[in-house]
Design goal:
The protein is α/β, with parallel strands linked by helices. It is about 40% helix and about 15% strand. The strands form two sheets. The chain has a four-stranded parallel beta sheet with strand order 2-1-3-4, sandwiched between helices. A four-stranded parallel beta sheet has the order 6-5-7-8, sandwiched between helices. Helix 1 crosses helix 8. The longest helix is centred in the N-terminal third of the chain and has 21 residues. The relative contact order is 0.17. The protein binds 1-(2,5-dioxo-2,5-dihydro-1H-imidazol-4-yl)urea (2AL).
Length: about 260
Amino acid sequence: MLIRVINPNTTRAMTDLIGRCARVVAAPGTVVEAVTPSMGPASIESHYEEALAVPGILEQVAQGERDGADAYVLACFGDPGLDAARELATGPVLGIAEAAMHAATMVGRRFSIVTTLGRTMGRAHDLVDRYGFRDACAGVHACEIPVLELDAPGSRAEAIVTDYCRLAVEGDGADAVVLGCAGMADLCARISDAVGVPVVDGVTAATTLAQSLVTLGLRPAVAGEYATPPPKAMRGLLAPFEIAAAAVGGGPSPAAAPLVVTAD
Ligand code: 2AL
């Protein structure tokens, strides 16, 4: 099984960290390929950056289809481009926020989210609503650490994120915590030990859930909203993202879409 874990930002050190964490939960016979888009922001901490990350994500899904990927993980907590990726992919596509929230509600009654910057909290709330967890979400907290400082050498990020998780559990009455950034993936086990409730990292949750969906033979619906997008002219910088007529309506899979993909 080939799971393509896409880091929606373009910082390769973060892709490496995400790949290392995802591989820990890969079953024997599962290959985790962690990839970085050829275009997009260095980190995603605003709606603007999230929007501009989506073409690079779709480029990586199209390449994954050509490479025979069985499933995809979108490893940014805003779950950018999730619906669009499902329209291109023939296998399951999971967002890390989506996966983490689902996992948290299977081990606790109410979860709190601890994210990076305060300005990302609105998106976290939006996703809580989208996935139907308004009653299960006890709170969203920001520790005001920028994404790329989470794993900086000598950073106090781990201690600060741990404190926020503890405060969330005590203050919100949560019995599970969801980490709100892919860059926190490597902190998960130690924070869980320190805080004493299950702490869910979306990268590992999404990887192992994607693996399970492939095992179950479940794929995005080919009819309805997740059908391949209709052929349509795309102009300017987005011209390479045009979907060919052959990719739609029983033709070859979206892998045949003429998306230009620059080597990783
Ligand atoms: C993220 C994330 O997971 N990756 C990134 O670049 N930004 N999320 C966040 N809440 O800051």
